[in-house]
Amino acid sequence: MHRSLLSISIVLVSSNVCHATEAQETKIYEETKKFILKKISLEAQQKIEPGVSLYNEDELKRLGSVNKTISEVLQLNPNVQFSQDSMSAAKLGEIKANDFSINGAMVYDNQIMLDNISLNNVINPVAGNNDFAMTGLSGSSVATTINTDLLCELAVFDSNVSAEYGEFLGGVVKAKTCAPKTTVGKVHGQIIYDYTSNDWTNSNHIDENEIEDFEKESGDLYQKNFTKHGISANLYSNLTDRIGMNLNLSKRQSDINVKSLLVNHDSAKHALENESAQLNIYGKLNEQHKLKVGLQFQNDQKSLNQYNVKNGHVDVSSQNKAMELELRSQLKYARMTQSFVFQKQDMFSDSASNEMIIWRNSKNKDWSTLTTATEGGYGDQAQGLNSVEYKIKSEFHPFQWFNAEHNVLIGAGYGHYDTDWQRLENVYNYFVPTNNDITNCLHQNGQSIDPNCDASYNNGQGQYHTTRVGLNAGSIEIRNDHAHFFIEDAIQFNDYINLRLGLRTDYDSLNSKTVFSPRSTFQYLPFSNQHLKFTTGWNRYYANKLFAYYLKDGINNLSYRETRKNIDNDWGSRVPYLSSNIQTSDLVTPYVDESMFAIDSLIGAFDAQLKYVHRNFKDQIRKTRVSISPIIDEYDNLGRMQADTYTFTLTNHQLISFKESQHSILFAFDHTDKNSNFTDYDDGIIPSNYQQYILYDNKIIDESTRPANNYNRPWTARLAWNIDFQKVPLKLSNQLRLKSGYDAMVSSTIPVNERPIGPDGNLVKTRYDLTPISSAFTWDMRASYNIHVAKDHYLIWGLTIKNLTNKINRYTLENSANLYTESGRQFIADISFKF
């Protein structure tokens, strides 16, 4: 791999040697050429700048996507990694954005923004689709979903990130809506509708056994029947020469039927909805000041029926409400930007019952096809985050000092955050009855029947509950204040050397610590132009705020376990059920040290970039089980990771004409190598001994060097090819991906008599065995046809085909020995009206 990268580097450098002599001999011509093509050159620089990827409105709309999410756009980015099951054939009914990793970081360590508003879930980002739980709500790294049809730009900062940005270990993803650029008084907009279903999708399989599992299996793992459709609308106008507006509305819905295990119920119905609304008002106060007022609302809803529980319905809602004020001021010596953000994130779970009761099947408890019959739910719960943020930055006009041009950027910010978790009512979870005596369920007084008793079990023997877990109603509140300051100077020396030096400091009241993040970038242009450019950087990034560690201890303190001997005894013998020793004051802020090197080159009509990013993650927070009886967990900073990402990209900065058509091409390749000693901050299976040894592929290694199982395909090649036909209003977009095969390592416990002795003298208890997974190829295509129906009015027909070749691609889940398949061929139709 290193030899291949070295060879590519030599080609990039040698292909540009001829430009040195040419630049000297035709200096006047070159300067004139730069002046004429100034706009094109600047655009090319933005696209190939190391660490920055920009996707404009046309690129976002041309992408063949199913759910119109940010994560689908990022599948073309070589520095972004996805979970192995991100394209699962069994979860095609989902409409939320997939989690993603940037340069090896955890999925919750990215900074995701819509304009100035954060979309991060900082309460429970790794909870997953756990909508039926006693002590928590479902959650992913993104709090709510946004529709990419409503964006004008998407920027990804994956390395060499400016000191302006903080609170991340992976990267920054910034979605942007734009001010209208239309004639005053003219109203423009677009309405888009799309549709797909399981009837338009091939359900691929590996073998006949998987077909049988797919037909018989129940639960969320197999969303066999689904219908998805979405509608979005965008309206924008310059109402006057001083006031403009942009209104965005969208709604996406998915109706899913999963097989039910309840008698007389063929399926359990799920209804998923994503709604969003955004209104931006742009005001030109005078020649120096411009004001933007923005209102946002997003709501992700789920109406769910448990496939194996009677009366197990639950409604879940995740909302984001925000208002932003942004003032841009053109001052004498600087351009100043100030922003105020008021934000409220809420998540609710409304359950049909506050008691989850498990029975043995009987005459009266006969609704299940299993050996046990379950009814009820986990009660109502909620969590929320209220925040107010203020940021200010000043970009000073360039000035000369010590024979160099300086561009100084200074900024600061403050944020106040109130987060809470609420259990709105007492909740009980009853264990399977274990009594052996006979009961008729009547209390000794003979006048009342025990509510947790069933007299029909086993021909009248009866059954009753003797053990239950309870969770008291209550709430946990946490407050946090965060402040930051940064300064950065971009220095240019004689058109040959660019240097950017920055320093960022952050203060967090949760641990009362102040951290410093140095940022540096060095750039050398041997020919004083963009034909060849060497870039290197050394940077440190500190993690974002995450309230999960601090909330968990309070939630666990509300739980207890209690027992009774028989139905005539009161519930008693209460003992704590869950316990956590979380020393929040001892937790330091996780950070990552980054070093990178990149070569950029202009080769004819193409931009080429070869880049290497090394990340060393330190003080990562993980959960460790220190006691089994009683169960005691604690968080520590002993998590360690290292990630190396090699990427090569090639794209044309000028359209290529061929037989009355124009073509744009992007080729991207990445090789990723990641080692980690934990899965995420809630990984409770890690022993307390950091220097534990394991048997990995028949070799004894330190667990901290175990390669990551997920978000870690060894390499992926991507090709995006867009075609515009000149005589026919037809556009074609192709996205091809080839993901390498990989060795999935499945864990198991070594029998006691077979355990080897590790270097520390202790017996090795855990082994990981190799399960080879073959490579995966997908070809996605989108075609759109423009029909001019009237002046400035267009009807656009679109068809997207995912996995055009219907290739059967396999994957395995974390620590699982089972093989699953990705989606087969899928069709998505859409129609747009643009005016």
Automatic annotation (TrEMBL):
Record has Transmembrane as a keyword: yes
UniProt cross-references to InterPro entries, sorted A to Z: Beta-barrel_TonB_sf (IPR036942), Plug_dom_sf (IPR037066), TonB-dep_rcpt-like (IPR039426)
Protein origin, superkingdom: Bacteria
Chief location category: membrane
Its membrane topology: Multi-pass membrane protein
Isomerase among keywords: no
Keywords carried by this UniProt record: Cell outer membrane, Membrane, Transmembrane, Transmembrane beta strand, Transport
Subcellular location: Cell outer membrane
Ranges in a coiled coil: none
CC annotations in GO: cell outer membrane
Homology family: Belongs to the TonB-dependent receptor family.
Protein name in UniProt: Uncharacterized protein
Organism expressing this protein natively: Acinetobacter bohemicus ANC 3994
Lineage: Bacteria, Pseudomonadati, Pseudomonadota, Gammaproteobacteria, Moraxellales
